Amino acid sequence: MTSPETRRPFDWEAAGQTLGESFDGYHAVVVAGNDPLTTGRVAIGIGRAQAKHRRTAVGDLFAESQPIIDLVHSDDPHGLVDSFLYGVSLNRIAHAVPGAGELFVMTSGTEPPDYEAMLGHPRWLRVAVGFEEVGALLVLAVPASAPRLAELVDSTDGIVFVGPATVADIPASSVLGTIAARTRGEISPSAPRRPSPIVGLRIQPKKSQRWRAASFAGLGVSVTIAAMAAWLAYRPLAGGPQRLGPKPGSATASKQPVAIAPESNARDTAVDTGSLASQTPEITNPEDSAQSAAFGVELLAANTQAGAILKLQKDGKTLPAATFAPALIQGAQWYKVIGGAFRERFGADSLLDALRRRKVLDPGSGAVVHLPFAFLIDSGVPASAVPGMVSMYADRGQPVYALRQANGSAWLLIGAFQSAQQSLLYASSLRASGITPVLVYRKGRSF
Predict the structure, then answer these.
(1) In angstroms, rounded to a whole number, what is the distance separating the alpha carbons of residues 37 and 162?
(2) Lowest-pLDDT range, 29-43, 119-133, 273-287, 372-386?
(3) Using an 8 Å Cβ cutoff, are 346 and 277 in contact?
(4) Is 323 strand, coil or helix?
């Protein structure tokens, strides 16, 4: 006599793990559903798949996703909300999961998320770029009904839907996959323990990646939690040059600030420094040339300093290492607005692509530039003092930014230059402000 076929519940975590094995090229993924249990299990599954070979953090933005909460063995109630609103260190809220490779989990925190305030926050773009730069992965479990979810997705590599959840204003190109159980909600015990394929699992083609995986070969994935602690403070500014308005020096040129944009990303960004007669300043740290954070993104060039300051005031909160620097273009002085400071070009490429996707820049706008030099304003600055000091200089119209050093302190820098000779244009301005120009190779990570 044959016994009736028994069935077991759909394994949401196994489904997430199967899907997650195809996510090597992603660095920030949203997992959205209506049920905090099934959505949390899928997010954990994706995290377990990737944590086998790189740092992976799974964050709970449901405030009640029990599968994520169950992995935390600590009495500390702080989480993502506390880090976002109150600056609690990620060292404190990221909990290692024993026996799960390099998997960490983060709860929502001491209070429920304010989705209107959090999901559309420009800081997520900086977080995503930060994870991308170090080769790690962030997985966020979020209610599909949360307001401004589409804005959060736009700051990441895309979204995985769990169950019947969909969001009308998220384009199909942003959907990385959908996981749904059988109509009856069960699969037979004779099915594989790690279902392949899983009924209801649909993997969409990947969106164009913001980086090339091969570029990370030299970095490795030995990123520490100390590096991860920079996530929510990562990335103040970036963008790409836009050229608008009349040619400088023409009869129709206005005295009001205008911006100029490149014809393409491949344009020659060299500036005319032949007319500079001053003595080229000495580079004080030549030994750091090999580790210089030389690559950045040129947002625009304005024909007045006021125009450059206006751009920083408008977009500075969403961009890393924001600054501007004077440059001679066809004999006229312009002010180039720069964001980002990366050792490898792929970091700047990634930032440029992310800013276009988030519509900080128009399609085709912006250019990656090689700017290894800057003027050092201060060094050994405690991390806690950086925001106030940068704000103080900004109030004076001085585009100072911070780069985090290996010992946790910060360098305060101003400007970004292709050559020591180009920096001469800014040196006299600094002297007039009572600042002694000290030219250095830029090094460190964006604060």
Answers:
(1) 10
(2) 273-287
(3) no
(4) strand
